[in-house]
Structure formats: C-alpha cells, structure tokens
Amino acid sequence: MKRLLLLALLAGCGEPKLDLAEGKALYDLHCASCHGLKLEGQPNWQKRLANRKMPAPPHDETGHTWHHTDEVLFGITKRGLVPPYAPPGYPSDMPAFAGALSDDEIRAVLAYIKSHWKSPDVLAAREQMLRNARKQ
Question: Could you please report the per-residue DSSP string of the chain?
C-alpha cells in the first residue's frame, strides 16, 4: 500500500502541464503581429529584405522552427537573435522577451506553437533531430 501511494505521489512530480490556451493568448498578443495569427509567417520569409533583415518565419510546419531544440527556441524567444543563436550583429527584428514574458509564459507560447506540429514526417524528423542533439 505504501508503495502504491509513493508511486502515485511521484507520478505527479513530472513536468508541469502547460496551458495551451494561455500560450495561444500570449502568442496572439506578442508574436502574431509578425509570425501571423495562423503561425504562417511573413510573405517571402526566406528572402532577405532590403534592410538586410529576414522576414519573420512561419512557426507552423512549413517553416524551420521545428528544426530547433526546445533550448534554442527558448533562448531565442527570451534573448532575441543574438549569440549563440545568431552571429554577432545579426540584423533582426526579433525582440528579446525576457522583460515582457516570464520563463513559464515563454514555455507556454512554445507549447502552443509545438502543438501545431502534427504530421508524422515532421514529428519523426524532429524526434531524430532531438536525439542527435542529446548525443552532443
């Protein structure tokens, strides 16, 4: 009986369940103006603009967001596109959200974005990328 109680208590000690509704609300407020309400990104997002900046990429499966580890996505969101996430002086409109969003809020936004990655091909490729990243 004690063993069952201990297992039940330990089962609740994992990662906290992130609130996708909160993530969506925060995404809509802080991210959608550049990355799109449907996570579609800006037009021609793969072509550098005249000001040398890249348009905001999509966060749906058509973009490259899913190619990055959770740690990199968290770092870019919190600190912006600065080293080690981009070369020094990289021209970007991506702001740092450290002063605007808490770490938990950033995680909720990222959980909302990741909830849109559903195709078996993307999920398999992402899992392989994450496995490879863990080996390094």
Answer: -HHHHHHHHHHTTSSPPP-HHHHHHHHHHHTHHHH-TTS---TTTTS--TTSPPPPPPSSTTSSGGGS-HHHHHHHHHH-S-TTSS-TT--------TTTS-HHHHHHHHHHHHTT---HHHHHHHHHHHHHHHH-
Amino acid at 61: E
What is the C-alpha separation between 78 and 90, in angstroms, rounded? Answer: 16
Per-residue pLDDT of 101-122, as tens digits, reads: 999 999 999 999 999 999 999 9
Residues 63-77: tens digit of each pLDDT: 999 999 999 999 999
In this prediction the pTM is 0.84
Q: What is the mean pLDDT of residues 1-18?
A: 47
Can you give the pLDDT at residue 126? 95
Q: Are 95 and 73 in contact (CB under 8 A)?
A: no
- Sign of the alpha-carbon torsion through 31, 32, 34, 36: positive
Q: What's phi and psi for 103, nearest 5 deg? A: -60, -40
Domains of the chain: 16-135 (1.10.760.10)
